[in-house]
Amino acid sequence: MKPKRKDSTCPKIFQSPAAAAAAASVTAAYALAKSEKLEFIETDYSKFDGVRENNPVQDFSIEINAIRDENKVLESSIAEVKAENSMVREKIDDINGTYSELSKELHSVQGQLVVERSRCSKLETQIAKLQKRLETSQSIEDEVQQLQYHKSMVDRNMEMAAAHTQGSGGVWRWIARTPNT
């Protein structure tokens, strides 16, 4: 077993509690003996105009007045902040009300937009059907024009044939064998 290292800053004498108590009593006795040798002379300091001792009661009243003044300033600042907070809350309430109204309006407009979209979709479907009909009607119109052209050609041919047959008396006259008048 190794021996413990002792603190070398304190002499060996002061390491025990009894030694420390003895040293303390010697120090106290020395201080007491020294204070008995001093003599204090009482002087009336009120006659001096120079440096005077401050009155502690007066110092406290000055400090109290300064604290009261500071308190008044702080209370007025708090009142201003409360008034400002009240105005800000009113503005926030107004903004929240406006937001609520705008939100309702937005939902209403979105609903109307959905209705208009479906209506637009129906109209687009109808337009597509009408375009198909128009295309078919155009082809029908072209076919009707073609048929009218053919009819006019047939009518013209018939007129020419009728004119040709009128001069000869026609097929019926030939069949009936009636003479030309």
Summarize the structure.
With 181 residues, this protein is mainly α. 78% of the residues lie in helices and 0% in strands.
Describe the 3D structure.
This protein is an all-alpha fold. It is 78% helix and 0% strand. It is built from 3 helices and no strands. It has helices at residues 17-37, 56-168, 170-176. The longest helix has 113 residues, at 56-168. The protein is rod-shaped, with a radius of gyration of 65 Å.
What keyword list fits this structure?
181 residues, 0% strand, mainly alpha
Proportion of beta-strand residues: under 5%
Mean pLDDT comes to 77
Sum up the overall morphology in one term: rod-shaped
How widely separated are the two ends?
173 Å
Number of helices: 3
The oligomeric state of the chains shown is single chain
Radius of gyration: 65 Å
Q: Secondary-structure element order, as H and E?
A: HHH
Beta strand count: 0
As a percent range, the share of helical residues equals over 70%
Give a quick account of the main beta sheet: strands, pairing sense, barrel closure: none
Structural class: mainly alpha
The low-confidence parts are none
Write the layout of secondary structure elements.
Elements: H1 17-37, H2 56-168, H3 170-176
